[in-house]
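Hi everyone,

Forwarding the result from last night's run.
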Amino acid sequence: MLTCFIGGLALFAAFLWVEHESSAPMLPLALFRSRTFSAVNLLTLLLYSALGGAMFFVPFALIQVRGYPATIAGAAFLPFTIIMAGLSRWAGGLVDRFGARLPLIVGPAVAALGFGLMALTVSRGSYLVFLIPIVVLGFGMVISVAPLTTTVINSVPAHQTGVASGINNAVASAANLVAVATLGAVASTVFDHALERQLQTGGLAASVRQAVESARGTFVVEPALSGIGGADRLIAQTIIKGSLAKGIQSVMLIVAALALAGAAAGALIPRSHTGVSRS
């Protein structure tokens, strides 16, 4: 994994060098001389890393830790979708009313609150309680997304709006992919360490130890319990689900910090930026 990471960084550096030297670059680096454009793309990188990482792990929290069927777990995303669809038009006018800076500080901060609440509800509370962070996250994202898109387009000359939009979309996509890979490694490491701590506890039956050992690196519960029954099965299940919850909670806390960093990036946008396109 480390080799792939280093190789990716080297290829990215080579790409930037080629674009810098090109007379007709696909990625005009001069666009990043705009403080607004740079700040809003940094915000995109941080916020969409947080969103992609969290949304990847929500089904694990609901299905593997909480035991809900896949259909019910999928329905948890409905409030988020409804809020995004229903309030996007309203959110699009926030830049005209308040400028770009305020929504792009408040929105990621509200999203960070939603991620933080997810960390608290991974392993406790009812299904309806778990939906509260989803609703909070929905409001945070709807406040952020439309102003973010408007600001990206309006931060560059009119003839470069298409390029600016493409760059921002690429940043969002890359953020999602990198977050899932990186946070997956973090969650797996925390999960395995939590299992190891439980194995160091005395008094565990051999069948329980075997089940817990087989859960390492899998991030799923039932396969590890296939050869165990009775009270030992319940003990092993509790250990595995509790360890998995700790891994997911660690991810949710990280993504909450990323979203707060996104709010800080929003604060870098000049106060004078109102969303009016430059010619």
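The chain has one domain: 34-265.

Cheers,
N.
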